[in-house]
Amino acid sequence: MNPDDPLLKILACPLDKGPLVLVLPERDAAAEVDQTLYNPRLRRRYPIVDGIPQLLPSSGEQVTDEEHERLLRQAAP
User: Fold this and answer.
1) pLDDT reported for residue 27
2) pLDDT at 24
3) What residue segments make up the domains of the chain, in order of their start?
4) What is 6-75's CATH topology?
5) How far apart are CA 38 and CA 1, in angstroms?
6) Distance CA 60, CA 56 (A)
7) In the prediction, which pLDDT does 33 show?
8) CA angle 65, 23, 76 (to 5 degrees)
9) Of 7, 25, 40, 47, whose Cβ has the fewest other Cβ atoms within 10 Å?
10) What are phi and psi of 29, to 5 degrees?
């Protein structure tokens, strides 16, 4: 998924129905998850597996304060 993908405009968090942010992997680190969709309001991230966003509530993962800051820095413009 790329930052210009029109699908990003219609994808929403399954919990609060708000917009999600595409987070791209860090260039110099081996990322555990290549790309992820992030809800900064609830501090939940949803994986993208083989180009398909996993947007079931059970697929979401709560993140720590440090992870929240890192994800916001990595967010696609």
Assistant:
1) 60
2) 87
3) 6-75
4) N-terminal domain of TfIIb (2.20.25)
5) 14
6) 7
7) 52
8) 115
9) 7
10) -125, 145
Beta bridge partners of 22: 37
pLDDT in tens, 12-70: 999 999 999 999 887 644 444 578 999 999 999 999 998 899 999 999 999 999 999 99
HEC sequence for the chain: CCCCCHHHHCCECCCCCCECEEECCCCCCCCCCCCEEEECCCCEEEEEECCEECCCHHHCEECCHHHHHHHHHHECC
Q: Could you give the CA distance from residue 24 to residue 2 in angstroms, rounded to a whole number?
A: 9
Q: What residues contact residue 11 under an 8 Å CB cut-off, 6+ apart?
A: 19, 20, 37, 53, 55
- Tally the residues of the chain: 77
Statement: residue 76 has pLDDT above 70? yes
Q: Which tokens belong to 6?
A: 């029109």
